[in-house]
Amino acid sequence: MRHTVRTSLIGLATALLLTGAAGCGDDNSQDGANNGEPDAYSAPDWEINRMFPSQGATSKEFEGCLYSSPMPYERDGATEIVALGAEGTLAGLDPDTGAELWSLELPTPDGEGVLSIAQPAFIDEHRILIAYHSVPGSAEEVDPNTRRLTHRVAVVDLQNRQVDPAFGDIALEATVDGNDDKTVSFDPAYALIRPDVEIGKVDGDTFGKAYITSGNARDIQPWHGWAFEIDVDAWHEQGADASVSSVLVTTPEPAENCGPEGSSGSRERLCGGGLWAPSGPLVLDQPGGYELVLAPGNGQLDLARNDYANTLMRTGPGLDFDPACDPDACADFDSDAPSNACIESCENLWIPRLTGQDDEPPQVWDNRCDGLTLFECWQQLDYIGGSTPAYVEVGEYKTLNYPTKDGHLYMVDQTHYGTQFDRLKLVENCGTADDPCRWTWAGMAVTEPVVAWDGDTPIIMTPTFMPDKTHPAGVVATTIRATDDGPVYERLWEFPSFDTDAATERFRRHPSRMTLSTLGDEGRQIAWIVDIASGPDNKGQLVAIDVLDGTRVFETTLGDRGRRYTVPLVVDDRVYVSSCSGDFGPGHVEGFQITREDSGAADGGL
């Protein structure tokens, strides 16, 4: 099993030719921290140079931030970099200068504007499917908190640089059966499409099914986790009326059960279960088809009412979900303290618990969790969800590796979700009595791990962050070791090393996600990440890390902040990242080139 499509959005290849040509740009920067050694680089013969934006450059500036990642598209043998601004401008950029080659505006009803956050998905080599919102045309800023009027889906033909007339665009609508003999209707004003769009295909599909998921900005009530399945083949062949093939809601509670309208549910367990992980659901290949793993966030957990907040849910084509829990063991389900007998019986539903190496409850700096159960504590802290698990198969074990806002990595049995193999603390809980947590809602991990391999040994890299000035954070690498009692985590390295000052100065905000590439003839594996700006200069750092030992390979300063949750794009000897000048814009793509200092000849791959 492997998930099917995520890498298609973050790089054309991981072992392409590196030319070694002279660097083009105005910034040859290798600064920052490497495990406490400010001047140490583990690839001293290589350098990273800025291509754009630079002084006098003509690179494209977008009105809004770039909440999504740059995408590669090959036209007539030449690569374009495709980027989507939050204001709904989709543009093709020159890979050398960042200059606009073409652009188009996403369609909305007359008089309405666009808010676009989610990463589009390729449905074939020329077309991408985009999920976005229409908003009041009078909105002064491209702000995710702007009222959403409709949630829309369009297909763009990149070859012909237009919204594909064979599809057009649609507005998402749904009403499903809810609890208490009521219905629950999708309300665009109380949902936000943040996650990546993902594609699943079964045998015989041309385009497959697209999965569009949402929660709500700031957990404003009434809110739920919504998943829409778009049958792209049916849409293409039969028209818009056939496009939405299925809908799932994670907490089917009528609005009157969700607390006061317009209030925040982030510290409540009423409704919720938002599907807001920026990296989207996980698609796992299966013979002839796929499974879909959804990760609902905070909210109401009650198996008797089909409320599944703070869990992992296994479903698939059609979005039919059956937790397959033992009805007798779960008959008296306690939402504050679910019994292990019930939890462990579930085949398709994972419920977190204190098991494994790290079985201590959160130790919170302000004592707000004293006397509370684990779920009551998570309610107070606005933990657990927000990430996407990584699938890793080691020997006989098939595992999901799920980082959560509580700063832990959970290892779940992919064959039986009720089995939790291990729970490892990656970082401490944010805040101390003398250094309160700056953002108590943020947690310490919102990401999707990347997995590299050293022979048969997996290296699971999880970015963490820390909104205080006391506790270390950064990229934490772990592996899975088989024991007589089952698989367990083993910590490998951290970047920066957690016993250095750099680890308490850096990674103070949500970083980007990570992507992999290789360097040189020997195929050295490196992982790229953006440490989003948190210092006084308001500049992010693009870093490449050796996946085997956590040493720094490259580092350079961005022109702006970078953008959390996005993914660096590696194409040949170039690296492209989404960046933003302020909270809401303007935004742009920043481009960098890797060169070898001592040779102008071709030398391996990046």
TrEMBL record:
Gene3D superfamilies referenced in this protein's UniProt entry, alphabetically: YVTN repeat-like/Quinoprotein amine dehydrogenase
What PANTHER family does its record include?
A: CELL SURFACE PROTEIN, OUTER MEMBRANE PROTEIN ASSEMBLY FACTOR BAMB
For this UniProt record, give its keywords in alphabetical order, as a comma-separated list.
Signal
Q: Does the keyword Signal apply?
A: yes
SUPFAM superfamilies (UniProt xref) = Quinoprotein alcohol dehydrogenase-like (SSF50998)
Q: Does the UniProt entry include the keyword DNA-binding?
A: no
Question: Which source organism does the UniProt entry give?
Answer: Persicimonas caeni
Q: Where is the signal peptide?
A: 1-24
Which InterPro entries has this protein been placed in?
Quinoprotein_ADH-like_sf (IPR011047), WD40/YVTN_repeat-like_dom_sf (IPR015943)
Per its record, how is this protein called by name? Answer: PQQ-binding-like beta-propeller repeat protein
Q: Which domain of life is it from?
A: Bacteria
